[in-house]
Amino acid sequence: MGPEVLKDVTFNIAPNSFQFLTGPSGAGKTTLMRLLFLSLRPTRGLITLFGRDVSSLDPDEVAVIRRRIGIVFQDFRLLDHLTTYENVALPLRILGKEETSYRAEVSEILHWVGLGDRMHVLPPVLSGGEKQRAAIARALIGRPEFLLADEPTGNVDPTLARRLLRLFIELNKSGTSVLLATHDIALMDQFDARRLVISDGRLYVYD
Fold it and tell me: What global pTM score does this model have?
């Protein structure tokens, strides 16, 4: 099956906590994120999410667990034929909710990330930073208990990176656990938080 990307990794994410995940490119940060989002299964070992052993979950239970987790992808993954508003509302539409029940909430979160005046434009019109904020809004619209952010500041300038970091800090203060993957040491120095460092397939924790 090839070499192990991660081996003998042991850690826990406490409720209402904030931590950075860092390490060199190719170290396994995205792999760890995929494991936590249940889009990848471990070849050995145990992963427990919200008190459940993920290896024992059936597909319906996986879907239920995932609704408690938000994820911000490094490559945005916005649908170009949908407006910013429609992209952010998509997770709620998939759940079968009526637009009247979430219209105000989607508008509110878009204003919160600074896209109130961009909600009716298509993604190709947005800048890289605006696309990233739209992706963050989409990840948050379901009010997740746990947020995974994979290099959310990797494609923006330092000023916007600091602004995005403040959004994640505010979210954490509202009760959401945050795991933010980044290789930007200067960004991590902006906020005193636990650091999970992946190196040579192993993970080291610095509180």
Answer: 0.90
